[in-house]
């Protein structure tokens, strides 16, 4: 069955937060995606979609993990929970999707923002109670110990809303820890044999965040298999603590923190490279099982590689322009680390799932070596084009690839144009003409502007990154 306009718009919102076929990268909050006019648009879209179909779409996007911003899925669910008719199914879907403490707390952050009285009803209190009480006590302790709060919301806030109580001493100890602190938990359940394991774990996690002794911190990490999320700011500059964490760290988590490791000069030992630390990091980057489990994509690793290689130099150039005090040259780059990141890019190609579509990609590289990406200023537009196209460059005439496909009678499903400042005058008619010769019924043309550019076809404004279909608006 063909999708309705409302369903297409909802899918776009779930994937990147905009009902139009325009993607602007960056924090959704900073880009004002939660402002009143956007909320009103979302509510009208939700109202147009059939009740059952609405939740099928939301579940599908969450299950397939195709959203660039999973927060948006919880935001849409919170909007659904605002309606009394949709609330039971919205809470049921939230119960399925809130598998982590972060998602659980974030859902209620959004829900309280759109409907301040949510949580006072039986259905919502039942959802909160089930989330805490249906879990094994040790599993619950591990989740809340790692994430006691998130985005300004604490577990204590939800426990007070639902008035949760448990007859199981171990679970009751976790709830007491969350609502009244570690000291009260120890006083009430420290001697209870049924709660001994949970109390010991939470006590050590609580002490870990305050402990300044490096040896004690490392022993706690190894005993309880703590993660980087448990770290406090006092541990961030301790190299041996990071080495202990790296032994079980997933590769995507390492990439999240690699800029911090560079900032605190973890790779250096005086004027020399710290070979022990470099080896520990490279072992994580080469972990085949972790690469497969995290489903890491080549573009993500490529961005981190460019940031590591070029960010210090670019910051130095900016500092020189603003006449600030600065170092005479950027910090050295580890050849070993760069080599392993490049190998990681190759390894992650196995994670790219085929779409079943036939692509022709045109790259307008006429001025790409002079411009930087608007959102990722450490990356040149030529590098971004290579990451998108999986190729180094394209012909200067932007439609040459499509003309070639027509002459060769190639069947093409998707034609992608990548450039820095794409102007569509004269381009639309030519694409439409070539499309008619391809004889492919569902042919789609998408353009990607990867630099801050003036675009006359969309609101006459400066944009950062655009994916749209100038010739085939009816085919979306």
TrEMBL record:
It is found in: Cytoplasm. SUPFAM superfamilies: TROVE domain-like (SSF140864). Gene3D superfamilies: von Willebrand factor, type A domain. Transmembrane segments: none annotated. One of its GO terms (cellular component) is cytoplasm. Keywords: Cytoplasm, Metal-binding, Ribonucleoprotein, RNA-binding. PANTHER family: 60 KDA RIBONUCLEOPROTEIN SSA/RO, RNA-BINDING PROTEIN RO60. This is TROVE domain-containing protein. It comes from Rhodnius prolixus (Triatomid bug).
């Amino acid at each position: 069955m063909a999708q309705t306009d409302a369903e297409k718009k909802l899918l776009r919102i779930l994937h990147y937060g905009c009902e139009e076929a325009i993607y602007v990268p960056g924090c959704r909050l900073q880009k004002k995606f939660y402002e009143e006019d956007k909320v009103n648009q979302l509510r009208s879209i939700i109202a147009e979609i059939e009740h059952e179909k609405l939740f099928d779409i939301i579940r599908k996007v969450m299950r397939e993990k195709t959203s660039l911003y999973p927060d948006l899925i919880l935001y849409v669910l919170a909007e659904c929970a605002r309606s009394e008719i949709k609330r039971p199914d919205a809470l049921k879907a939230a119960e399925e999707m809130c598998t982590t403490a972060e998602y659980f707390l974030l859902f209620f952050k959004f829900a309280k923002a759109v409907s301040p009285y949510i949580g006072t009803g039986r259905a919502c209190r039942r959802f909160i109670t089930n989330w805490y009480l249906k879990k094994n006590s040790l599993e619950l302790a591990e989740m809340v110990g790692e994430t006691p709060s998130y985005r300004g919301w604490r577990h204590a806030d939800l426990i007070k809303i639902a008035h949760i109580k448990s007859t199981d001493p171990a679970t009751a100890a976790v709830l007491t820890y969350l609502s009244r602190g570690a000291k009260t938990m120890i006083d009430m359940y420290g001697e209870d044999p049924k709660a001994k394991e949970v109390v010991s774990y939470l006590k050590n996690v609580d002490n870990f965040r305050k402990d300044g002794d490096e040896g004690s911190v490392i022993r706690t990490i190894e005993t309880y298999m703590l993660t980087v999320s448990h770290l406090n700011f006092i541990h961030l500059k301790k190299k041996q603590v990071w080495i202990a964490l790296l032994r079980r760290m997933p590769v995507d988590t390492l990439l999240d923190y690699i800029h911090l490791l560079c900032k605190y000069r973890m790779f250096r030992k005086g004027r020399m490279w710290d070979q022990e630390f470099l080896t520990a990091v490279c072992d994580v980057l080469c972990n085949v099982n972790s690469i497969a489990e995290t489903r890491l994509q080549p573009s993500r690793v490529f961005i981190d590689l460019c940031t590591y290689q070029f960010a210090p130099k670019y910051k130095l150039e900016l500092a020189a322009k603003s006449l600030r005090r600065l170092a005479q040259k950027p910090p050295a780059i580890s050849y070993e680390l760069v080599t392993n990141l490049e190998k990681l890019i190759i390894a992650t190609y196995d994670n790219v799932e085929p779409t079943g579509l036939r692509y022709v990609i045109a790259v307008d590289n006429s001025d790409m070596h002079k411009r930087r990406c608007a959102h990722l200023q450490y990356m040149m537009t030529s590098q971004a084009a290579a990451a998108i196209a999986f190729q180094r460059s394209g012909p200067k005439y932007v439609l040459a690839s499509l003309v070639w496909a027509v002459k060769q009678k190639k069947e093409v499903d998707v034609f992608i144009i990548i450039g820095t400042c794409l102007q569509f005058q004269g381009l639309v008619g030519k694409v439409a003409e070539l499309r008619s010769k391809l004889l492919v019924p569902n042919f789609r043309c998408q353009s990607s502007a990867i630099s801050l550019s003036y675009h006359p076809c969309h609101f006459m404004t400066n944009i950062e990154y655009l994916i749209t279909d100038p010739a085939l608006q009816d085919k979306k």
